[in-house]
Specification:
By secondary structure, this protein is mainly alpha-helical. It has 2 domains: 3-55, no CATH class; 77-160, no CATH class. Helix content is 57%, strand content 0%. It has 7 helices and no strands. The chain has helices spanning 3-19, 25-36, 45-55, 77-91, 100-110, 115-124, 136-160. Helix 6 packs parallel to helix 7. The radius of gyration is 36 Å and the shape is elongated. The termini are far apart.
């Protein structure tokens, strides 16, 4: 049997499947496969399959995909200590004794790190670094902004939630009724 005869058999099968109502991608794939055999139509089918096996293009066994070895990153103790300091400062940002000078001191200390270390510190306070193209200064600025925003939010909440004074000072007047 030649590849041409096999090709004709496939085309007959495609017509049979189409007439039976099985149109679609399966029949289209068989038709495309049959058309792809055109360059080999003069070969004997046995010789053609031997060629496929020899070249590896007709390999029926899927090759095992080698999984990449995960990189093990050992965190520097200095980075971990700075991350812990950042987390402590962030957690006590609501405390009135926390100052912007303390935040600036932390930012000065983390500015000496490389970007992966700064990202570790950012992760400690749940700060999402915007993109890979962020500079060190932008990430440190984002960390500072996150901590200072938390401090400011606490101050705003204290101003809004302060109780009304007994003598009426600090109490908003009631809206006038028409």
């Amino acid at each position: 049997m030649t590849v041409l005869e096999f090709q004709q058999t496939l085309n007959d099968l495609c017509r049979l499947l189409s007439s039976a109502g099985m149109a679609g991608t399966k029949v289209g794939e068989l038709t495309a496969f049959a058309a792809g055999l055109d360059p080999f139509k003069d070969q004997q089918l046995k010789a053609f399959t031997a060629t496929l096996a020899r070249t590896g293009t007709g390999d029926t066994q899927p090759q095992a995909r080698k999984e990449p070895t995960p990189k093990v990153v050992v965190a520097d103790p200095t980075i971990l200590a700075l991350a812990a300091d950042a987390k402590r400062l962030y957690d006590r940002a609501a405390d009135p004794t926390t100052t912007e000078a303390q935040v600036d001191d932390l930012c000065r200390r983390i500015s000496g790190l490389k970007i992966p270390g700064i990202k570790t510190v950012a992760a400690a306070i749940d700060f999402q670094v915007p993109s890979k193209s962020s500079t060190k200064a932008a990430i440190v600025g984002g960390i500072r902004h996150r901590i200072v925003d938390r401090m400011d939010a606490t101050i705003r909440r204290q101003v809004i939630d302060r109780p009304a004074a007994a003598n009426g000072v600090g109490v908003s007047p009631a809206p006038s009724q028409p």
